[in-house]
Amino acid sequence: MMAKSYRINGDMPKPRRSSPHPDAFSQISYSIDGCQDTEHEDALPQNDSDDIITQIVGHFGIWQLRSVLIIFLCKIPAAWFMACIIFTAPDIHPNEEFTCDTSAYGVAENCSVSQDQCSVLVAYGDGNFAMRQCQKFNYAEVFHSLIMEFDLVCLCDIFVAWSQYWHLFGMFLGGVVATRLMRVLSPRRVYISGILGLLCCGVCTALVNDFSLHCSFRCLSAVSCSFMMTSGQVILTDITAGKYRQGVLLLYETFWSLGVILLPAIAAGANSWRQIVVGITTLPLLIVLLLPWLPDSPRWQLQRFVSTDDAVDCVMELLLKAASINDRRCKVPHDLAAQLERLGDRLRAQPPPARWLELWHGHKRATIHMMATHMALATFLIGHMGLLLNIRSFGRDYLSPNTIVIGLVEILGCLLAMYLAFHHNVRKWQWAGALCILGGAIGCLCWFFNDAEMPIALWMFFAAVPKASISCAQAMLLTCMGEAMPAEKRDPFAFSVVTWARVWLLSASFLTVLRELSTALSLSTFCVLAILGGICTCCLRTPLDGHKGQEQEQHYWQL
User: Measured at the alpha carbon of residue 207, what is the angle toward residues 205 and 212, in degrees to the nearest 5?
Assistant: First the structure.
């Protein structure tokens, strides 16, 4: 049905659309004679491959900066909802903060409670005893945590991992659904639906009195976060170009880290887990107020709109505003509408995305590239989430400073990824892989200090080094993993890699349960994953620049 609005070969050509309305040109003061020399106006020269949209708005400017910052903000609540379990369900100490309520078993003298307050030995008659699990607890007047709310003290780590599992499952489900939704809904509409859904689900998560409902709304909140992050990245990619696009995508993860750093400030003044959840739901309200300045994806509109005329009108209005803000009014051509029509025809005439099996064919290293990328991102995502959640192993009294340190080293990793991508582009994969191998090896050294009373600062050192290296490699993978693929394979390739990694990410919350056996065991598990991911990353290659010729490119892939 959509195809009826497209022009196909053999149809009568459409009459040429008129140029933008005179009042629109008066707003931007269009004048070719008054246009400055592009050598002095543009800091970055335009490429011959730039289409009319990039020629008008430029690679990066004030308009893109405003849009990028609005989209970046979605990463902060996404980090809050993922990591809030650190503060909503901290460890609590038996005897000091909770005791078993033995009133249900009769006289207190007939009961003997275990040291962890989870088991009760009940005396029945002469010499008859029965071991019972404590069903009700008395809590001290301290922070009312999620564990206290649902009486989860005896299986704390299991239930915390179960709650976190549903959040990670929501991230996986939201990414798949958002990608499919953007076939019919614009990225901006998907972003708005995500922010509104997060507001509703976040409030419901704080109000429910049932643990199963709590997990369900955590899952839906994660779906909403994934909607925003997935659609936001599509918009970022479409409105930026050149090295600025790569830089923006590399810095996209830094706002996630900023959210991790700010989370202790929200938890500091809270008296219960409900107040923390309500507190992290406030930032989406600010994002809602900024939605009028959030642009849509112009190329998506030209390619997907049912009505070509409506698409051209929407994109033309967006470009005129962007040109005015970026002070590029002289870049708007007289036949803007006609050029947008031709661009839309080219976008709709593009070959369909490659099928999944086709991703394994092509150059001689296609199979190695596919396997290495899938395995590397899977290990990095598990390590990235696991090392953050694992700071619960280092003591409840140090949760706030440890969380801030983890956020800072994540930012350091992202900045290191940007440095490698811009200054060591040819060998950036080998550098990132080597850093992960080195960082994982340093983290595994914690076994040599496990028997002694190791200071918390030393534990954090063994966790921060692999965390920084994983953040570096993960940011680089998410940004540059499709550079070796032809255009028709990049989207299905990225979808396959991210979906595969998020499936394996579901195990991250349960790997943290290993801390019950040994703190070094849980930490070294994620360090080993960092080493495996580093080895896979070293197998990747950066393609040569196009101007070096096809023969050199073919020779490169044979290395």
Answer: 55
Q: Are 502 and 175 in contact (CB under 8 A)?
A: yes
- 128 forms beta bridges with 124
- Average pLDDT for 124-137: 71
CA-based nearest residue to 179, from 474, 502, 486, 473: 502
Q: Match 């949760």 to its residue by tokens.
A: 399
- How far is it, in rounded angstroms, from Cα 73 to Cα 246? 18
Alpha-carbon gap, residue 261 to 272, rounded angstroms:
20
- φ and ψ at 24, to 5 degrees? -70, -40
Residue 367 token pair: 């199979």
- Strand (E) or helix (H) holding 100: strand 98-100
Query: Are the C-beta atoms of 164 and 509 separated by less than 8 Å?
Result: yes
Condensed to tens digits (0 to 9), the pLDDT of residues 301-340 reads 988 887 888 888 899 999 999 999 988 888 888 888 888 8
Tokens 């038996």 belong to which residue? 94
DSSP H or E segment with residue 325:
helix 308-325
Q: What is the per-residue pLDDT across 160-176, written as a single tens digit (0 to 9) for each?
A: 889 899 999 999 999 99
CB neighbour list of residue 414: distance below 8 Å, 6 or more residues apart: 250, 251, 253, 254, 257, 471, 472, 475
Which DSSP string corresponds to 143-168? Answer: -B-HHHHTT-GGGHHHHHHHHHHHHH
Q: Residue 334: what residue type?
A: H
What's the mean pLDDT when you consider all of the chain?
A: 82
Reported as a single tens digit per residue, the pLDDT across 139-152 is 877 788 888 888 88
The length of the chain in residues reads 559
Residue 217 has pLDDT above 70, yes or no: yes
pLDDT in tens, 28-52: 333 333 344 333 334 444 444 578 8
Structure tokens given for 406: 């983890």
Task: Give the per-residue SS3 of 368-384.
Answer: HHHHHHHHHHHHHHHHH
Cα-only R_g, the chain:
27
Is the four-CA dihedral 38, 39, 42, 46 of positive or negative sign?
A: positive
Structure tokens at 280: 């992290």
Record the tokens describing residue 263, joined without a space: 């989370």
